[in-house]
Amino acid sequence: MSNPSELNLNSLGVMGIKTERAGPRLLVLGAVHGNETCGPRAIERVMADFDSEKLQLVRGSVTFVPITNPLAYQRGQRIGERNLNRNLRVTTEPKDYEDRIANALCPLIGQHDALIDLHSFQSPGEPFAMIGPMTNEDDLEPFAFSMPEEALALRLGPRRFVYGWMSTYAAGVANRIKRADESGLPDARAQLLNTDPTYGIGTTEYIRSVGGLGITVECGQHDDPKAVDVAYHAIVNTMRHLRMIAGAHIEPTTDVEVLELSEVTDRLHADDAFVRPWASFDKVSAGEPIGRRHDGSVVSAPADGYIVFPNTTALPGNEWFYFAQLSTRALNSD
How far is CA 155 from CA 9, 133, 218, 254, 310, in A? Predict the structure, then answer.
């Protein structure tokens, strides 16, 4: 692996295919988190299909970054020195390995119109996609392209869609700041970033901020071989929907479930524990116990809803689980 101080696009193993015919500029990322390997495996399959001419690009360009965080991937863990999918921005004075990746990755993202970021998750559960907010001009996450983003999301394969990341994360930051001096985080930089509202910006938030659209596809549990299939079909379906490869028009998924994130609960102590093994999207009723703090106090569901991203290995001061509720948001399919 190259010297972390010299990270560039060659270090990240960027691959691309470009045609002479104008069209969408698509970017596909794998292994933003190093222990999430469905992305690299799916990209290998897609590239093999291009090599054998099973797939042929007819317009636009597609860029692949199979292993976006080489250090984390090499170690087989989620992060290298910190979470690459938080606080993603260019900085003139990089402090860690992920800052150096961001300095190469952010300009690359800015050169594209659409981004598919392939992930997996720890606990069992069905695949889902995370989308951005509805079109708005608010300060937190202004966005002008929710309609084409929704139309693309409905062609990726998953039937479940989640939104509300930035607003929920910002509320979590506000709570985190109130107890920053009690968080007990051993890493001062991690604690600083964890109380910065911009820390919630990841790959898809970044591309939306520079005029593109982006979808995170959570393809399944880390070790589930079916997650690779989900990732592969998400890439191919995206190219087909954007008319970048030949093939029949893809009909939108109609049996959809749309959830809005509304709260994030942090783990405050290493002895904080869930009352039972939770999986993402397990239903809970208002007042139902979810976890127990190290002091014996109970963390309960604030309303009827769903557990999202329960993390039994969360470090104190970081996200323990999210809470979501059914949404009435209707997704555009055109």
Answer: 30, 18, 14, 10, 27
